[in-house]
Queue: 2 jobs
Job 1
Amino acid sequence: MSDALLKIEHLTRYFDVSKPWLNRVLEREEKQFLTAVADVSFEIKRGETFALVGESGSGKSTIAKMVVGLLGASEGTIEFDGHRMTGTAGAEMRDLRRRFQMIFQDPFASLNPRWRVGDIIAEPIHTFGLLKGADVTNRVGELLDTVGLSAKDAEKFPHEFSGGQRQRIAIARALSSKPEFIVCDEPTSALDVSVQAQILNLMKDLQDEMGLTYLFISHDLSVVRHMANRIGVLYLGRLVEVADGKRLFTDPQHPYTRMLLDAVPDLALSGRRRKPVEGEIPNPINPPPGCAFHPRCPLAMPRCKVEAPHRVDTATGYAACFALETQPA
Amino acid sequence: MTEPLLSVRNLRVEFPTRRGILTAIDDVSFDIMPGEVLGVVGESGAGKSLTGAAIIGLLEPPGRIAGGEILLKGQRIDNLDAEAMRKIRGKRIGMVFQDPLTSLNPLYTVAQQLIETIRTHADISEAEARTRAVALLDRVGIPAAARRIDDYPHHFSGGMRQRVVIALALCAEPELVIADEPTTALDVSVQSQIIDLIKEICAERGAAVMLITHDMGVIAETADRVAVLYAGRLAEIGPVREVITAAEHPYTAGLMGSIPTLTQDNARLVQIPGAMPRLNAIPQGCAFNPRCERAFDRCFKDRPDPIDRGDGRKVACWLYDAAVAAGKEKVNV
């Protein structure tokens, strides 16, 4: 597909969690690695919202950080608009960096408390040398206006704003370098629902106006359903299923996706009987062999314990599960 | 009608500060029947947790109960001295807090903490208490309870720790359990396990539950009745099904519309403009009036009291006042 803006192939990230050298020698222990992201591949098309969902420790944020270059990849490639990000440096990388931005989860930690809001928003403009002098102030005013604050707020400090307003400031900062692609790492999970609705609506409006592409990361399935065109489900750093937004909810393929959907509290009071969820996410340092989900899986077979499943194509994406291979389609 | 297990009457909690008195809970009343699950929802700062803390006598100074009364089976508990309150806390009212890591002592094993609590409230030997503790851990779904009871809290995962906390809250067989955001720190798949557990165990023991949460989904799955708090005031209270499917207070209606669901398709979420007022800037009249689309003259002058709507529903909104309903007062909707 030629219209892919972001293309990720076989992305893997290990973290070295070994004890210090002396302890390893004395206690005769091997080096230990935690695999946060294992062989993840997906594409994001221009103008769409691709969401990654998963529970804590599934590698959502690690992928986000690798995509914007805050973390290096151990293996695999990230391609942004045809440019490989690994190996690119200097002026070319600088130009690429302008084109993607990030919105973080905690609006209390992501804004410098000693900077005025105007300076915070103007920083990317100065960094990339986009505008000079009075134009910067005007642009900051415009941006504040776009996100539903007033141009006068540029003089204030972050502590004068509520959580939702701070997240608006973070969005204005992300927009200031005129990016095409924004990575949103749990942008609303620190907010109350009524404020969350305001921010989600704002993000959708901005996408419509500016043709933005989002990588949207969240643990909240209902938020993801509301925002995303396509969804990837992560489990222990592995992408277990990718499907179109609505399809994932009406016709989940992977047993983990089904379990996750079953676990969401039911606001509609349909009185459906939930299947009880079993077990918890295992330790990522020693993940189960074969398919990482097999100890909790209702469909597990002997094969799942030894072999890692491959992708099986489904109606709108794919899922990695042996049970789907054997089932007649 | 049976006597309510817990009755909160016109509760008022204040925080004196240098710049004047802040009223964090203002004239809140509700009952909890024996065996009932009452959900308490609201956004951050609405006074949910403070209500729980006031009931159990754990308000942090300078916060104080400035008015109203709290009755447990007809006996006033809001004016008890510290010693008498300690006998009720844990014994008759159990508590489950949000963060299972901070509500367990990291320096004691789970066995030590459970046995201490059991022996504080029941006059039994250590061996008996231990047997009871193992049975409890087993009941809350901790595998190999007899072996794991001697582990420290950090040996347990988040979900397992919350199970230990639930065991701790239940070990004196309380009549009421106050669960303050018991699943907020947990992942969804673990959250559903914990909700099911709380529901099951309380039903089994006939304990009533006051479930404090910001998550309407959790309330929908668990509670019998729900109380919606806004800026320290009761906005609406009633049976869960009615409140969720046909909210009457404009705030509850907005709140329900702002939650994305797994079944409905909306291009845009309903949004309530603005944010909840700070405690030092609660407007005159109804606290919700600056954000309310249906506010009219009276909302800016007088504060609405909860109006009885039948079937145990109460709504604090002038739209449901008799004079308005009869069309005597003009409302621009």
Job 2
Amino acid sequence: MKTTSSNAGAREGRECWAALLALSAREVFERMLGSHLASAPEPFADDEGFDLTSMVGLAGEICGIMTVRCRAESAVLMASKMLGVDAGQAGPEMWDAVGEVCNMIAGNFKNKIAGMGDGCMLSVPTVITGADYTLHALVDSDKIETRLMFEELPLLVSLEVHS
Amino acid sequence: MNNISVLIVDDSSVMRKIIERSLVQAGVSLGQVLGAGNGMEALAMLSQGKVDLILCDINMPVMDGLEFVKQLSSVESAKGIPVVMITTEGSEHHVMQALSAGARGYIRKPFTPDQVREHVLPVLAGRV
């Protein structure tokens, strides 16, 4: 996936958002999957084999989109851990699982920012399969990313904020 | 807490299964477990049998959880069934809206089985 946007730079008061985004993701994986997320040792390559993208829209005091990108095998593993079943039984649930993970990270993140819990609504999640697409931000936006490792597989959590 | 019939309302089937498992881990002995993907489906399911407890998300298509809880009060057969919200919406405003509408408990996602135990067991015991 490629993204295009005119980066207006970090907005005031958002310096801690990357850390909160990582914390939000870690809490979701620890509480709902029983998994510890490690920090990625180095930046991800352009092609990390990410073939699933889950997206949740935010609207209100901040407008934007939260995305979680991972490999299909990661999504199957997420479903397996969430449901407490073998990976072989979890495949059909992987889209739902990765969508719900993105939804919980977005909700957990906004609940950590003073005043945002009330003033920001979340959309229901959407999951895209495949990597050959471009996400176009149509207005000035800031992009916050956290690169994590889930059971030694790469996981990219991003928040693109339009206001 | 034996043979509790529960209706789980969440648009994610994975989440419905997690909630069901969390109830078992919390020590609730489940009887019939019904699942609905939104508030409208849940209202229709209430006619399918006795329900002792409803666990409900807020953000759902068709009919959200807050609207469902409001409409529940006008359903004669649903009077007295306790509702516990389980949702990513964690603001005090949402909590107050849910409790004002008639919910008896509120659990924020992500949650642990201990939190389910802490919020659901008192409701089933009639202490909330």
